[in-house]
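Lab notebook, bench 4. The sequencing result for the construct came back, and we need a structural model before the next group meeting so we can plan mutations. Quick request posted to the team channel:

Model the 3D structure of this chain.
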Amino acid sequence: MHPPIEDYALIGDLQTAGLVGRDGSIDWLCLPRFDSAACFAALLGNRDNGHWRLAPADHEARAERSYRGDSLVLDTEWTTGTGRVRVTDFMPQRDRAPDVVRIVEGLEGSVEMRGVLRLRFDYGRVVPWVRHVEDCRVAVAGPDSVWLHAEPEVTTYGQGFSTRSDFTVEAGEKFAFILTWHPSHQPCPRRIDPYDALQCTLDDWKQWAAHCTYEGPHRDAVIRSLITLKALIYAPTGGIVAAPTTSLPEEIGGVRNWDYRYCWLRDATLTLNALLSAGYTEEAAAWRDWLLRAVAGSPADLQIMYGLAGERRLPEAELPWLEGYSGSAPVRIGNAAVDQLQLDVYGEVLDSLFLARHAGLEDKPHAWNIQCALLAFLQKNWREPDEGLWEVRGPRRHFVHSKVMAWAAADRAIRTAEAHPRLKADLDGWREMRDEVHREVCEKGYDPERGTFTQYYGSEELDAATLLIPRVGFLPGDDPRVIGTVDAVRRELTLPHGPEGMGGAPTGLVRRYSAQHADGEHATDGLPGEEGAFLVCSFWLADALYLTGRQTEARELFDRLLDLRTDLGLLAEEYDPASGCQLGNFPQAFSHVGLIGTAFTMAGLPKAD
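Done. Here's the predicted structure in token form:
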């Protein structure tokens, strides 16, 4: 069995990221980019698929870990029967090549350490040729080359197609291990000084965190979530990945396993909101510029997601040689949902560009032309069914959330044009569209008998995305239809059983939608199986409770959600109240965006809107 997802820590250099287990093993790392093939893929297979463990030889050693201040530098302190030792893991922001640095420091007594480096390129499939070059171990296979050296030098030896080392650390001693990737046809880049790199990395993060303007309750949680979002930004382009992993399951043993190492347009609105609200205009501007480049072209060709630099082709494939996390197969790379029609993304794009302009970011001359072209397409196509927010792999339907976001697209364009009369605008046509969408959603997407908006026209099922109706301004929070929708979601989509220690009480944690119809058939998403509580939906519920006047209940739910974070303050995509475990890709940007937004709501502070 694999370690629980919440046992992993995140390290990264703003171009890729790795996951470090509580046992001192790096089990996931893609080089040189988030979406590159993994060279450590034990997370989705077994240790033979690549990992790097550096820990005491004593298997009974106890570990405590934390991030050093407001940074992504991970400290793990191990206590054994003979002493204490600290392992510091980090990835410095790169000059040319990506580096992983692991510094071992003796704190007390004497500790025997053991290192096992098992490199497997192409997602754990390719065993490299490893040789000695001066004081380095060099692993080469095809286009990939990895160099490992230690300061001071540590004796290494090969065993079982891995590079191993055994050494003893006395109190006050330090050993630094540096792993560097570069293209195999190029000379190895110059070495970094590990201790200078550590100080620079700490300084970079400290300076960045100091720009946070949020001073409300739970500030530490907000900053940790902001750091996590920053770690998921691909610095060269400004694109932000949904998560640094692929195929961590939404259900253990199930098939709901997807690749999240890409940039979703719908993340733009909430990500921009979070960054701008906390004072991070530079990152928000980079994301806005990425968005404009990515969506440029025919509005009919707008995709729901793109690659890190705006790449459009993201073909989906399965990796049969990987058994999957805890047997959850298949393992997928790429994402076939890229070809879906999801009309809500037009609303999210226009909303995000509205937020950027409203926040005072320097306007781009072509941005308004792009917005007008997107809205012109939506005027002709908003009545069509689509696959919706949750990327269903069943039939297209008239999803209520998609229609609400079509309304938001027109609304944001109208508000922009009204505030800036010099802009060329079809105000009469846009107002007509906005009014028509609003009428239709209220007539066809609302169930008056149950007093709730439904998942799609004519459906009896509910959708947590309807909790966003007051947040986007479609209806006010005190509207009876909004209050009824919040009550219905709590009643029908809240998972009923808490983890051990909560007495089996209702959790307030929300599913996205019903996983199965009453007749046992697959749900709207066209897939078998169940899933856990979708964490961002639970934050949406806390927001909706607050906006409908139930502030005490909202704060109680928010406190409960904060308790679900790992010891390092991280959140996956989902949570299983029955087992008390996190599920899905990790860490998940959407979950941390939700935490930041709800913190601002609970603090009664204005958000970028």
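The longest helix spans residues 400-419.
Will bring this to the meeting.
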